[in-house]
Each structure stands twice: as structure tokens, then as C-alpha cells.
Amino acid sequence: MGQRGALVFAANGDNRMVLADAILSQTKGQVPFDSATPLGFFETEINLFWPLVAQQIESTVPFPLRLRPETEQELATRLWQPELDAGTLQQDGVRDYYMVRRTLDLLQLAASAGVPIEALPTMLKAGMGEEDGLGSKWDCMGAVLHRWCSWCLEQGLLTYGLISDLYWRGLLPHPTYQAQLGRRYQAVFADDVDEYPAIAHALFTTLLDQNIPAVFTCNPDGGIRRGLGADPDYLAQLAHRCDGESLTPQSQNLAPVSTPLWQGISEPFVINEIPTAIQSIQTVSRAELLRQVADVIYQSVANETIAPQEIAIVGPGVDAIARYALREMLGARGIGVESLNEQRAIASAALVRALLTLMGLVYPGLGRLIRGEDVAECLVVLSQRPDRQRFDNQRPDMTTTTGEAIAPRIDPVRAGLIVDHCFEPDPLHPKLLPVEAFPRWDRLGYQGTQTYSDIRQWLQTQQQQQQRRLLPSPVVLLDRAIQYFLAGGSHLPYDRLALLRELMETAQHYWEVDARLRQGNQSASQEPMANTVGRFIQLLRDGTITADPYPTRSVGQPTTAVTLATLFQYRAARWHHRWQFWLDAGSPLWLTGGEPLFGAPLLLRNWSGTLWTEAEAQQAREQRLHRNLIDLLGRTTERVYLCHSDLATGGYEQGGPMIPVIDRALALQDLAYFEAGE
After folding, report:
1. pTM
2. Closest CA to 162 of 81, 10, 53, 52
């Protein structure tokens, strides 16, 4: 931390990097500053002042270790298993996984709002009701959260919820810490405070009370994270201590169009003129809609009316079918499509699944996790090794997202033959037999035979080292496999290389936590490592979405592809484009999508303290839709296409809130076409 520097806040990590780069460019590195997100700042401060925090909570742990969300979920499930089995921590229609996630989210929301955990059951009873046994559910949630926090602090483990709770309850009010804040910073700048948690208000108030100059920016139509931990209305109260200034956009946008557009939605029976900047693409089926969207984009790019990077496709929820279809149709015509912060389970990649299969073959007792098709896929993936001599002479560009595919030396057909004849399933020691176990092994060919024998020999070597305790940890095994079979991953395109980094960072964190839990716990220290490996494999195979690798952006030239994003992702990234295509504009998800986390409305400072009704929920949805439309239109400068299909992917008719506007825009287009024909 710099001495008497500036403290700069941004709403999220990507915005923080952009803002930090801009400050460095403008100041030429002459002004010392620390940049952070609110949650990142809380974590840094807790680690920096841990002796002070440890003294308050009476902890003897020398250094805390933060839990990643995927590990937090698993450990909480194991700790709360008695309540889950007994049914006291269950709700009708809610799976155990989501019940645990919902409870953990409540901890994060309460800590962000500055609400003590002890007050949660009372607030839930007041806001959600107590009938039908709900009161006991809320008491149970409060009890398990209290036990979870105590257990984590005993182990020296911190979650984001615990970090926020320790910061606002323990560290921030401490006189020593407040004095240190005043000595370290001479100014504070906070961008987009409408995305900050309520406890950030207490931090800024503390700084202002010490006469530290501050600059805050706020988007009145923002509030992207409202219901996800942010409290924009409460942060807006900082305006009472500031001199206000309204900023005008640097370039023209379609924000003024939001007024007639919203009138068309809120008053569907009143005929309103829709501006010509709003166009409509309407089909019967969704498949035809995706084709027409791709055709319009291709024709516009081919005519040089617009460049691909000036186009964004935004929807309330972009499913895998739409991502694949648009990427394939536009990619076949030479137009790239970049998904913005695409969230996929790490085990959805064949490369990751192959490495997990290797782990199951090396460590004993995991045979029930290894199926024949897993082994076949593993053989195909690992046989795509680059030629080392060619690789050393000419290394492909790591930063590209497409590259020359390396043909597997064992194709899927031969891999299936090998598994049928050379894979011996066993609950304790599944193994690969010599190639001669296949009577017609000559059908594999020389290249396939040599590659299979090489993979089998490598596995045997690792198994022997594991038995002799010469394999330090599963992380080392993964690293050896990546180095041997994938040449360290350096020949891979950027997206696949990021997957490997994500897997390695996840595994490294998982076993750091495992090592922490084994310290001072005799029963845990005696548990075989294979059991932990099995839990890790199952965790990733269950579809866990892990944290993004650091850094979260690629280096190199800016992308020249069409942007594809969900509504939340696009707004959070704060991008802008000339054209926007609003995908599935007739979907009800424009109104119902982006629902707040469970209990979030009760943890806003402006909550009335009474029962949260359906009428209030509907009003909140309409306000969210209004903000979304204003913000989206403010991020486009020329044209918006409302892309609607009468039938959704499931075959049912769509009836979202924007149907009246879509029909009106289509009617005006037909009229203009008819008049032009005359």
C-alpha cells in the first residue's frame, strides 16, 4: 500500500483493470494509488490487519485462507449433512445443493448489508412469514450459519461473507484501524457506487469524517447488482455530503428512445410512435430467428455498413443452443463471435475430463468413478500430442482463440476397441492391460499402438510413485500430465489454455484447504489422499463452475468479433456498440429474469420490515426492466433490433412484456416498406 496515496474503487474486477490502466496513462505513473473492488479491499484489509482481527475474535491461526465458492459449497454441505438428512434444513421443491447455496448466500447478503447473522431468523420471519413450519426453517438456517462461521474461524478459513462480516463489525470500527486509514490515503475515488454493498457506505463515511476528499460517481439507472448484495438507494445518500454534478454523455446514444419504448410496454393499449431506430426481426420458430439474425449481421458486415466489433447480441438468458448456432453460422461466414464472460462448468471440456480420468486411474479406490467411455475419451484427448520437434521449431500463437487442430493418434473408433479389450474395470485398481490383450491389436496400427503403450507406461510409472509416496500431491500429478501429454499447454489456443490454468488453480486451492483441515485434526490427517481425490473429481463432474483464472482477460489486440452476452453480463461490463440485437425480445425473462437472491429484498436498508408481498415483487421486476431498457439504450448509438420468435425453444408461445412494442415496430416497418414500394 502506498503512503498517502489515493484509494480508487471500481464496481468489479474487469472495470478495475480498465480504470487503473486509464489512471496510469493519464498520470504517467506520477500519482501513487491503490485500486480495488469493495470486496477485494475488504479482503486485503482483513489479511493486512489480521493480528488485530484475530485478537478480537480470539483466534490463534497465524494466517487466514480464503475459501473459493466451490470449496465453500462442499465444506458447508458436509458440515450441515445432519440437518439435511433430518429435513430441518429443507424446503419443498428445493434440492439440497440449492438449499445450501441459498443459506450461504444469505450470509453474504447479511454481511454486505451490515446485518448481524443473529438477526437473520427474526428478519426472515417478518419478511417471509412463519406459517407451515417456516419459522423453524428460519431458525435452523440461522443456527447452521452460526455454526459454519464458528467452524471456519476455528480453521482459519474465510469466505466472502465472513470477510465482509469481520470488516464491518470488527475491523472498521476499531480506532487503530481508522487512524491507519487516515494516514495511508489522502483522497478516495469510487466509481459506480450504485453497485456497492451497504457496508461501503460506512467505510466512505469514516473517510469523510476524517476530512479526506472524495469523489463518487453514480448511475441513477444502474443498480445492476441490486438484489445481489448491492444497495444503491443507501449509497445514494452519500450525495447529502457531496456537491452534485450531472454528467452528459460524450457521444449520442438512444437513451431518449427509452421513454416511448417504456410507454409502449406499460400502456400496451395506447398507440405510441416507435422511433425508426428500433427495428424488428420476427419469425415463427426460434431456429429461423437465429438464422435471420445471422443473415442480417452477415449482410450488414459484407456491405461494410458496420464492423463485427460494433455489434452486440444481448438477451435475458443466452442458452447453449443460441451460443452454438450463432457461433457456427457466423463463423462459417468469417465472422467471429465472442461470448462475454461465458460461465460453463469446467468439466464440460474434454481436456479437463481426460485429466480427471487420469487422476482416477492413478489413485486407488476410485474405480467406481471411471467408466469405459471416460477412458476412451481420455485416450483420444491425450493422443493429440504435438510433434515435439515441430513444436520447438515453430510455436503457435498462444493468444489466438482458434488454431490448427492436432489430429489424435488414437481416433474414437480405435479408442473404443482398446477399452473393450484392454481396460479392466475394478473398484479398487482399474487398469489398462497391455495391447496384446486385444487379439487383433494389429488393427490399431503402429501409431495407435505406440501411443497407447506410451500412455499406459506413464500411468504405471505414476502409480508406482504414488504407492512409494513419491507423488507429493494430486496437483503435482496434474502438472506432470500437462507437461508430458500437452507440452505444458503452450501450443493450445488461449481459451483451452485458460481451462488448464483454471483447473490447476482450482486443484491447488482445493489441496491447500485440505492441508489446512488436516493440521491438528488426527482423523482428517489419517484419511487416505484417494478419498480427497475422489471428492475433487466428483465436485467438478457435478457441474461446478469454478472461479475464473487470473488474469481474467487475454493479452494482445482487441477482439474484432461480434459480442454475445446476457443482459447482466453486458451491463456489468459497461460496453457500448453501434448496433444491438435484443435476442428473444418477446420472452417473459425480460421481466422475470435476473431475480434477486433469496431474502435479498429484506436486507436492503429501505425494507419496510413487513411481509414481502407478490405485489412488491412485481413492482420490483417492472422497475428492474425499466432500468435495463434505459441502460441498454444508453449503450447503443444507432440501432436496436428486437429479435422475436412466436415460439420459444420448448415450443410454447411467448408472451413477454415487450410483445406490444415488437408488434408496433414490425407494423411500422411493413408500412415503410409498402410506401417505399409505391
Report:
1. 0.89
2. 53
